[in-house]
Amino acid sequence: MEYRSPHGRIVDFNKKPLIMGILNVTPDSFYAGSRVMGEVEQVARAMIDEGADILDIGGESTRPGAEAVPHEEELRRVVPAIKAIRKFSEIPISIDTYKSVVADEAIKAGADIVNDISGFSFDPEIVNVVQRYRAPYVLMHIKGTPRDMQKNAFYDDVVEEVKAYSKEKIDYLKTRGIEQIILDPGIGFGKRFEDNIELLKNIDKFKSFSIPILVGHSRKSFIGWILGESEPEKRLYGTLGITAYLTLQGVDIIRVHDVKANRDVVETVNRLMAP
Fold first, then answer.
1. CATH tag for 15-270 (out of 3.20.20.20, 1.10.150.120, 3.90.180.10, 3.40.50.620)
2. Angle made by CA atoms 148, 224, 244, in degrees to the nearest 5
3. Which residues are catalytic?
4. What digits encode the pLDDT tens for the residues 245-262?
């Protein structure tokens, strides 16, 4: 399976999992190591050299409790970053935003994929942008908003509820002619510890949609619960354990902070699985 971006760049899902490197042009993302601000070119070059398949650029933190950023400020952060990378690389770039105006300007600047944490709930106009450019779209599940998503995180059956949410959204996108959809179950976004574990343990159930699956687990707090580590800086090894598991499960994209370490795990597991 391949997806084609508005600029003709190809995302090839025959190789899996693809590694999406997190590049946050923000001052307040939950993991300090992902904040690059004025070092975009240096960090992007390093990620590409380490084996990133996609770069995910975000200009607004969506950590629990985060406040929204005006679109003008988000644009000021992400558009120059995209343009800087496009001067030296044709790597597919994902714009991590839920705002239609940011998605539009990011694609014009050279972004290929729209990664929307809200599943077009926060700004429905983003669907029009995706449709107009025929851009691949990451549909993520979230309950609430980043500001309040952990305050009422309760499910009777998290797997079935996320599946039902996803089906409704996917069906709607397809009525709009949008077929290049990537599904993200939203690990950590309005989920309790046990919900995240259940989603990961049952990640194969989301393959029934027959679209690529993306998982963003890198250094998140549920890993801290497993390891007894409150600091994101101490959650790398737990992240790598989950990366190995997701590789075995055939997940299509993993979204991570540490490209080289995760690439090493993926290549090792894939070699062991080879005929």
1. 3.20.20.20
2. 110
3. 220, 255
4. 999 999 999 999 999 999
